[in-house]
Please model this.
Amino acid sequence: MKRALIIGLLAIVVIGAALPYAPVEFLKTPIESALARGLGRKVEVDQVSLTLFSGPGVSLDGVTIHEDSRAGIEPFAYANTLDARISLLALLQGRLEFSSLNLNDATFNLVKPTGAPWNFQMLLNQTVAASTTAAAHSASLPVGPAQPVIPTTLPSVKMRGGRVNFKFADTKSVLYFDDTDLEVEPGGGGAVELRFSGVPSRTDRGAQNFGHFYVRGTATPSASGQQFNFQVELEPSALDAVARLFDSGSVALKGLVSLDAQVSGSPASLDVKGTLLLENAGEWRVGYKGKLDLAAQTLELDSISPPGLNTKLHASTRDLLTTPQWEISADFNDAPLGSGVELARNLGAPLPAKMTAEGVVAGSARYRNTEGLGGNLEVRDAVLNMTGAAPLKIPTATVFLKGNSIVAGPNTVNVGGMDSAEVEARYQAGEGGGVEVKIITHRMNVADLRALAALGVGSIPLLDRIADGTWRGGLSYANPYSLSNKGTWSGDFEIQNTRLAIDGLADPVRIQSAAVSAKDQSVAVSRIRARAGDIAFGGEYRWGVDGDVESDAEKAQPQSFRLQVAAADAKEVERLFQPTISREGGLLARTLRLGAAGATPDWLTERSVEGLISIGGLTLADTRLSVDSAHLKWEGATVKLSAIQGKVADAAFNGELRVDLAGRAPVYRFEGNLEDLPYKGGQLDLSGKISAEGNGPALWASIKADGTLRGRSIEFSPDAEFRRATGRFQMNMTVAGPRWKLSDLKLTQGNDSLSGEGTTQADGRIVLDLSNGGRPVTSQ
Model:
């Protein structure tokens, strides 16, 4: 007995292993007929093999399940392989039927024909009967897509990792389900149990951050047609991906969304009830209920549990799977503004993280994917608070929504205590859109503008550099959609009684008043009335970028100016520029003059400024001079004053001054001319170079000069009057005063021609050593 059992088991193993290789092509036609009876559709199979170990059945390759003729000619499904288990009960009764079908990596096409139900409804609505009529009909199946075949018993169907497409008449939807698992189990009385999961996707987009979509439930026949009872779930999925599923436009939203729903009723009138949960953007849960019509592809939903916003939400869709047309609307009944701001920020709106809001919102708003925004809102008693800025108070604000735009205002905004402004804001979506803000005020503290800066609208020209004072006028902010996404301010306004800190100056510039015009990233400050230390000045100042540059190589232009100084003392000028001209390190380094100069600050390396300057009176030691005009160019550590025109002691001078700021102490080089200098009853013309180095007393002690001179009508001494004089000079400054050395002198005295040289004596007098044809002549 034991031996017989072992032999039997071995025979089963051998037969089971050999069955897949058995020549069973003669079974293909009966198998196709049996599948057609079970599915109510013509079935074609490429290859057939038998299986035993997974249950008596067949393994089929290249399986095409054709469509009901009412739904079109494209196959209902295609599977590379299909494992079909034979129904033993039907086999004992002399029929070949299949109890289960396992489709591997199959593709299904769900079709909604015009004026007819879905193709899967056609399958479910077909009667379950066993008759010779059905058998005879299946034995004479036509070659092409056939009329519906009456099934005997719907087999259970399984699929793993497949795909489900949607088609409406002859048009395929861009929506489909990927990574699809499907189980269809027939029950008693024609009922069918369905278990489905898949990842919603679009054919016109790449991978999306979606969770799985689950459907579980039953379809039961009734006198009024199939009745569905399904539980629907969506795993937590990226909110922006869900938005893009039904709208191909770019949507930037944060957070995860998940939902559950109970769906019941007939396909044309399904009751929907469930809960939507928004996570990672603040916890936000809302219940909803509504109607779903699978035939008309419409969905209507209303919120049933307000999300703490005193808000009623409504959503509706048409042509859900073809060309989705959907709308979301909200009715606000004095909803708290703060909760709405927090939700908008968490969803990705560019709002400051530390901004809080108070107030209420009333009105209605909607969004239709075919039309954009619509509706009107009113905000009352709003207060916006931001760290380090005065609160913004808005008694009443109107907000209009139309198309792709949101317009707020103009509305009165109170800033801090007494200041107010008229503010208008506009947001335009899509190509050519962006953000615009307009502000008009008769008077506002500059410090209160920090509230606007905290809103993330970029720095305001000049006003972002000053900390106090007031401003009045108009400003506009524009941030168009572009690759750079860089917003800019423009406008015309006036500033008063403020301070401006400038790198390299010991004191801030105190601006009594100035007019500012900003446009295209360039700023012009005119009608300046200001003071730096004890030096008052006026004029204009400009800076910005080259407006003609239209590439990433957009080049910043040098700052330019035109300044007029009424009077200045050289000592005060030196004090003001001490942070610029002194980088000598510590006491020991300054005393022993050891080591290199301190590191050059970034602001000095990056400085690029150019303009014109005039000084009505400049006190230089005991000398007072004026600079009618000079062209200043400051590039990094090099300062050049060129085309200098001025006067000193009724003499005119011109030339060029260079200052090198790269070393331990500044180095000065001047080259120019001095004409008609009064000297001993006559006049002198000097032409040459002056050099100096250092600060304070060290600067004066380092002055050196050399050049040429020309004189006229000089009464050098009572007995020496020179009608003409030429020569060269050298001068060194000492504690006792300047020390002159004159050489190559050529003098004309009456009819005599003299030559020689001269030097400064210990008592400060200049003594000339001259000769007249070899005869020595001495003059003092």
Q: What stands out?
A: The two ends are 154 Å apart (CA to CA).
